[in-house]
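Input record, target 12 of the design panel.
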């Protein structure tokens, strides 16, 4: 299982919990995280059966549209 959320481009991954009050989240696949590389690495060490995607804070799109964008990206990535 993987718990995932993306960060806006230009935001550097933090080791603190300081992202809660900032607009740091992006729709999955449109942020700073290299998902192709991450999933390839995860797959190398075992089969991933479930992904838990989190959206919090302000996104570029309304909530349900943002979720659909992320879902479409992950679904397309999995098909390749």
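The sequence produced for target 12 reads:
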């Amino acid at each position: 299982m993987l718990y995932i959320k993306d960060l806006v481009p230009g935001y550097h991954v933090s080791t603190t919990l300081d992202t809660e009050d900032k607009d740091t989240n992006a729709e999955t696949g449109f942020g700073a995280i290299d998902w192709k590389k991450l999933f390839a690495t995860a797959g190398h060490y075992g089969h991933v059966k479930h992904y838990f995607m989190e959206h919090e804070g302000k996104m570029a799109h309304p909530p349900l549209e943002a979720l659909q964008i992320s879902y479409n990206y992950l679904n397309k990535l999995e098909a390749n």
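The mean pLDDT is 82.
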